[in-house]
Amino acid sequence: MNYLVRGVNHGFTDKQEMMAKLKISRSTLMRRTRDCEHSPYKKAVIHDGARRLYYRLELWDKFMEYRTDKYYEEIYGIESIRDRSVI
User: Fold this and answer.
1) Exposed site from 8, 19, 28, 56, fewest CB < 10 Å?
2) Are 32 and 79 in contact (CB under 8 A)?
3) Where are the domains of the chain?
């Protein structure tokens, strides 16, 4: 299945479109991409060679929710509250 056909949207977007949609710089997108690749949602990032990246939008949205939850757990200590072995 060729899901990267130009002009056809199958829930994928490229790096340039992603930066425009999120209104972020290239370096910020690459930092978030690296974080995503080390998360349970690593399939949101598709590598087509060394420099060409595509993103699965559905999975990217789930990754951003995961990232937000993780942030709140770290900031407010929810993780230590849930983990009873700390007490």
Assistant:
1) 8
2) no
3) 10-74
Whole-structure pTM value: 0.73
Cα(13)–Cα(4) distance, integer angstroms:
9
CA distance 40 to 37: 8
State residue 2's pLDDT score. Answer: 44
Task: Dump pLDDT digits (tens) for 39-54.
Answer: 999 999 999 888 889 9
Task: Please check whether residue 23 is in contact with residue 17, taking contact to mean a CB–CB distance below 8 angstroms.
Answer: no
Q: How far is CA 60 from each of CA 2, 14, 48, 52, rounded to the nearest angstrom?
A: 20, 12, 17, 17
CA distance 17 to 81: 39
For 10, list phi and psi in degrees, rounded to 5: -115, 30
